[in-house]
Design a protein that fits this description.
The structure is a single chain. The protein is globular and about 40 Å long. The chain contains one helix and five strands. β2, α1 and β3 form a beta-alpha-beta unit. The protein is mainly beta. The chain has one domain. Strands 1-2-3-4-5 form a five-stranded mixed sheet, with helices on one face. The longest helix has 9 residues.
Length: 88
Amino acid sequence: MLPIIDVPQKAASCHTAVVDGVVIKGHVPAQDIKRLLANRDDTRMLTVPTMPSGTLGMDTPGAPKQNFKVYAISNDNEVSVFKSYSNY
């Protein structure tokens, strides 16, 4: 049975995964998931809202690379920037 996943509307994105109890929404880079799992805190979700051009899976040749942020959402629904990417 799948867990009930409470995703705030502003955090919504295309893909959803649950990795070791943490919800992953959208095109979150693998290194950010690994970093979170290695340094556990009260984060219940990592999300990259929408589908920024240039992120993994949205990296069509010739498409512009947009800046984007990976957000962390805590068990208390506090939102913080986990990592920012600038024309990576």
